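job 3f2a | input accepted
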Amino acid sequence: MRTPYILIILLSSLMLCSNFVFSKPKKKNEKKEKDLSNQLLDDFINRKSYARDDLISIPSPFRNLILVERYRQEAIKRKEKIDKINEKIKEDAEIDEIPDDKNTNQQVVDPFKIKQDVIQFVKKNMSKVNKHANLREYGLAEKKLTVMITKLTKYKDDAMIAKLVEVEKRKKQIKQEHKDWDTIKGVINNLTVDAMFMSKGKPKIALINDSAVEEGKNLNDALNLPAIAPIKLLFVSTSSITIQFKKFTLKKDLVDNDL
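job 3f2a | predicted structure (259 res):
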């Protein structure tokens, strides 16, 4: 009668021992895996290198976290690079002062030299006016041109008058560009895309402000704008439309509430 009880006790003891023996390495492996994941993540965040095989071997939730962080860091680096380029462009486009012709040092003023200095500064600033225009900073461009015109009107000789005419012509162009830029921005911001129709072998059509407009056609009727200055629906895709007005082209990405 005692033998079955002894066997039961022995079997129970063996089962407990086996659970202890096999479970301990499992916990150790889990801890090692977690430590490896944390270390790889720390290395990645701190921009240190990591082994590709180690990255693949860790559990997917940790691996995904590392990949997300990598893409985030790459996006930050791209933005920093673009910001540096834009900052350099803006530094190059800073306003230079036009030289003054006042005799502050009580020395003999050379009128010819003053005029040559003014012409050189006008030439230099005209280059920066163009940079402002390329950055769509039309207000700064117009301000610079106004300063140049004020300076040049003091001189009546042919060379300075010719330079004045050149600057005034450029100011007129900049003012028109500014107006055209505001026009196309207003159009792209206020139009509504209700639907897109795309069939093989047929023209692409966008339903804009309740009017069907074919790719390559003008938007003026759909937008109730005069046809004197055509606004063209340049390109239609499944995710965006592109419009053109004079020298400017703008793209509108379509989000859920646009369709």
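job 3f2a | Residues 108-183 form one domain.
job 3f2a | closed
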